[in-house]
Write a structure and sequence with these properties.
Elements lengths: L2 E2 L4 H7 L6 E2 L1 E2 L27 H6 L1 E8 L4 H6 L4 E8 L1 E4 L6 E4 L1 H7 L4 E4 L4 E4 L3 E7 L5 E3 L11 E2 L23 E3 L3 E5 L7 E3 L12 E9 L14 E2 L6 E2 L10 E8 L16 H4 L2 E2 L2
Parallel strand pairs: 2-20
Antiparallel strand pairs: 1-3, 4-5, 5-15, 6-14, 7-13, 8-9, 10-11, 10-16, 12-14, 16-19, 17-18
């Protein structure tokens, strides 16, 4: 599991400007930075297939009170009121188990083309991939649901997944900013992981984001990668349509039916819980989305 907050200095500088603008990477770069972001290594011969790996979420979540500081971009984007908040934090890993890269490229090019893939985040000073994943907290008994505070995503080769598919080292390693080109994607056999410490990688349980407070009980964390959304009134999709369902997606995959995972968690009435309950609290540096975003 990669901890985006442990990025080596050079790739971090390449990826993002020094702002609250990234998600923390989980592993130290295993090769010289000059070997990343190489267009000659893009592999489009085959099909992309993204999934959500449940074990990453099962093994890395916690419920605990934390202080959310004023001015954090992730809190502003998620509509979270600063102060002492009770949060459910969780890790999400989205591997590419297909036989081709999920190549995205430079966000600045997509934004200039107005092709619907990226939006500009003026707080962070970089671009967010639109509709990359959705996080829902679902009451296991009633079906009531809550949204997460997470708004920004950036696809990178954060950590390896399947050796049988991974025939090349990490390549996609730069989110980019308004000023610097990025190189986004997920190589075949690699993960794109968002660790639990990252900004916005949580549900607010005490109503501090304008939603109803979450009662104690059993809940599902539901994650959908490359989520489906309805076509326009004429039945057209701006990017890709799944012929099996008629729904839209941001990029093509060989299989859309494996894009959703649910993990059961429990929320106590008070006190910390979960596998990461004794872990050190995130710092303002962990919240910087340049660390993974």
């Amino acid at each position: 599991m990669k901890l985006r907050s442990l990025l080596v200095l050079v790739p971090l500088i390449l990826a993002c400007s020094p702002s609250d603008s990234g998600r923390g990477k989980s592993m130290v770069a295993p090769q010289p930075a000059a070997n990343y972001n190489d267009p000659s290594r893009i592999d489009l011969d085959g099909s992309v297939d993204l999934i959500v790996e449940p074990k990453a979420t099962e093994n890395h979540w916690r419920v605990k009170n934390e202080v959310i500081f004023e001015g954090l971009c992730s809190a502003i984007e998620g509509g979270v009121t600063p102060g002492n908040r009770r949060l459910l934090r969780f890790t999400v890993t989205t591997p590419n188990i297909g036989n081709a890269d999920n190549f995205i490229g430079n966000p600045r090019d997509h934004y200039a083309a107005n092709d619907g893939l990226f939006e500009l985040d003026t707080c962070h000073g970089h671009f967010h991939f639109k509709n990359y994943a959705t996080y829902k907290l679902i009451d296991a008994e009633t079906g009531d649901l809550w949204r997460s505070a997470k708004r920004g995503f950036c696809m990178l080769d954060t950590d390896p997944y399947l050796p049988s598919l991974r025939d090349a080292p990490r390549n996609y390693w730069s989110c980019g900013t308004q000023l610097f080109d990025g190189f986004q994607g997920i190589s075949k056999g690699w993960n794109d992981t968002y660790v639990w410490k990252l900004g916005g990688q949580y549900f607010v349980l005490d109503g501090g984001d304008g939603q109803a407070p979450v009662p104690a009980g059993r809940y599902y964390i539901e994650v959908e990668v490359n989520p489906a959304y309805p076509p326009d009134a004429s039945g057209a999709c701006p990017r890709v349509k799944d012929p099996a369902t008629g729904l839209c997606h941001q990029f093509a995959e060989s299989n859309y039916a494996n894009n959703t995972t649910r993990v059961l968690v429990w929320i106590a009435a008070s006190g910390p819980s979960g596998p990461e309950k004794n872990s050190k609290d995130p710092t303002s540096a962990d919240d910087i989305e340049g660390n993974k975003l």
